[in-house]
Give the backbone structure.
Amino acid sequence: MQNKKRETFSSGLAVFFATLGSAVGLGNIWRFPYITGMNGGGGFLFIYILCMLLVGIPIMISEFYIGRKTRSNAVGAFRKLNKDNFKFIGLMGVVSAFLIMFFYSGVAGWVYSYVFKSLMGTFKGVTPKQAENLFTSTISNYGTAYLWQVIVIVVVSTILIMGVKNGIEKVTKTLMPILFILIILIDIRAITLSNSFEGLKFLFKIDFSKVTKASILVALGLAFFKLSIGMGTMITYGSYFTEDNDMPQTALKVAFSDLLVSLLAGVAIFPAVFSFNMEPTAGPGLLFMTIPLVFSKMPFGRVLLTLFFLLTSFAATTAMISLVEVPVAYLAEEKKMDRKKAVILTAIIILLFGFLATASIAGDNFIASIKLFGKNFFDFFDFISSNILLPLGGLFITIFIGYVVKKEDVLNELSNNGRINNKNILNAFVFVVKYVAPILVVVIFLNSLGVFGK
Ligand code: PFF
C-alpha cells in the first residue's frame, strides 16, 4: 500500500456512529420535511422508502466493499482494483461533494445563526407570521448569512485537520444519542398541539394523487443525499472500516436509523405546520419557521430550542466532515498534497462558490438574478448534485459491482472471508445490485424526462 499506515475507526460501534454521523444531517432534519411537504406527503414518503430499500442500501453496501477492499479514497479505490476506466466515478464524487458543500454549508450557517438567536431569546412568544419574517430576514441579509457560512467552513476545516479518528469519532459518538432523545421530546410536544392529527395524516397517509414524475426523481435523489451515497463518501468511510465489520449489517442499521431520524423530524414538524395554519409547501424555510413555534409556549422552551439547533448544527457538521473528506482524501492520496493544504484548498473553493449560493437565495441582488437552466445558483447546485450526479454515480457503482468486479471477490469481502454467515443477505444483495437498482435508476431518469408519456 502506498500510503503510510492508514488509520481505521477503533471499533464496530465507532464505525456505526461515524457512518451514521455522515448520513444523519440537514438531509434528515431540514431537507426531508420540506421536500416531503412540497411533494404531497405520504405518497412521496412511500416512494422514498422504496428507493432507499431497492437502490440506497445496495449502493451503500457496494461502496463499503470498494472502500474497505482497497483502503483508499474514492478515486484511488478504482485504480487499486485495476479499473482505471472507472476512476471517473470517484472524480464525479469529488465534484458532487463540492456542489453539495456550496449550499449545505450555507444552510448549516442558518442553523448556527439560529443557535445564537434562540439563545438570545429572539423567538420568545413569536407568532407564525413573525417566525416566517425572521427566517426571511435571515436569508435575505446575505452578508450576515455568509459570515455564518464562513464560520461553518472554518469549524469543519479545523476538525478535519485534526485527523480522522480524533475529529470524527469523538464528536459523533457522544452527540447522536442526545439529538435523538431531544427530537423525541419535540415530537411529544408536537403531537399534543391542536390539530396535530392533520399533520400526521399528511405525513403517513399514502396518497399518490400529488406525486408527479418529477417527484419520483426527487425521492430517489433524496435517498442518495440522505444516505450519503453515489459520490464516494461511503467508499472513503468504508476505507476506514475495521476488518471484522459486518458491512451489509452496518448498511442496514445505518439506513434504518437514518430513516427513523427523518420520520421523527417529520413528526416534529408537520403537526406544527397544520396546527399553526402554515403551508407544508413552504420550502427550505419550513424547519426554521415551525420549530421555534413548537417551543415558544413550552416550559424551558428557550433552553430546549437552543439545544435543538445546537445539536442540529453538530449533525450538520459531522455530515459536512464526511463530505469534505472526499476531496481531501483524494487530494492527499492521489495528488500527494499535504493533508492540511488539501483541507485549506478545499475550504477556499467552498468559500468562493458558497457565496454564490448564499447570495442567490437572498433575492433582490445581481447574483440572485442570474439563472442557470432557470434556477438560481443555490437550486442549481442542489439539483445537479442530488438529482443528477448522485443517482448517476450510484448507477455506475451498481454496474461496476454487478458486472465488472468478480462476484466471488465481492462475496468474500462482504462475508469477511466466510467468517460471517450471511449467504441469504448476500444473494439478495447480488440480485438487487445487478437487476433491480440500476434498472430502477434508469427508469426513473427516463420517466422524469417524459419518455413514458407526460
Ligand atoms: N447525508 C447528509 C445529510 O443527510 O445531511 C448529507 C451528505 C453527507 C450527503 C455526505 C452526501 C455526503 F456525501
Notes: The mean pLDDT is 92. Residues 87-119 form the longest helix (33 residues). Residues 22-23, 25-28, 100, 225-226, 228, 231, 233, 319, 322-323 surround 4-fluoro-L-phenylalanine (CB under 6 Å).
